[in-house]
Automatic annotation (TrEMBL):
It comes from the Eukaryota. Residues 43-66, 101-130, 131-160, 161-190, 191-220, 221-250 form the C2H2-type domain. It is found in: Nucleus. Pfam families: zf-C2H2 (PF00096), zf-C2H2_4 (PF13894). SMART domains: ZnF_C2H2 (SM00355). One of its GO terms (biological process) is regulation of transcription by RNA polymerase II. This is C2H2-type domain-containing protein. PANTHER family: C2H2-TYPE DOMAIN-CONTAINING PROTEIN, ZINC FINGER PROTEIN. GO terms for molecular function: zinc ion binding. One of its GO terms (cellular component) is nucleus. Its main location: nucleus.
Amino acid sequence: MAKHRAQHDRYDRPAVCEVVGCDKEFSSRFAMEGHMRSMHITCQCKLCDQEFVGKQALTAHMRSHSVGAMFRCDHPGCDYESYNSGNIAEHRLRHQNIRDFRCEYADCGKTFITARHLQRHALVHSDVRPFTCDWPGCEAAFKLMEPLRRHRLTHEGIRQFQCPHIACDKSFVTRNGLWRHKMSHLKDKPYACDWPECGQRFASNQTLKTHVNEHQGIRPYSCQYSGCDKSFSGKPGLRNHMNVVHKHNV
């Protein structure tokens, strides 16, 4: 009985996530272990053998194997689609530019659509990169597991998302990469820069944000390679740097 009570005492005490760089606190060890299963443990899809970090990511992926209608964005000129209605709801906020979550770090003040995006952004202010690539000769290190997973696909040459546009043979590691690329084929450019004496127009809000970052001198995208302190106003600049300097095709 004493041993049984000791087990209860162990699981009823507050606990902290054991993954380096996470440090989330929980009221009990039961809650912490649930967090570990949901957010950090690698799970494999039994239908296609693809691996995901956390059961939530696997559950979302399994919807792609189900037969059913895709949810599509109804914003003019946007062809984003997803099996998850929650993804569509979050995506629409991008078009509306609703950013209620503000970074409180000194001299930052960046705003985000969701609390999750704000939490991810907070890692920018930290130098900790606990997730390292184990590919021979690669020194890339990441602050999150998901970028590391995508990074590994580039080593393996897996580019399963092909552009459907006629005469375009580009392919991409992620669906999001393909979606960004497809915006380049759009003739309509609804996003205009309101910087004084500029007025350039862009097909996507993300491209406009990168452009405005250049006006403001903001460079939030940092190179992931150890010892390289280069940073860029947008992801395209970072990708080009990775290709040219580190010979890493992303």
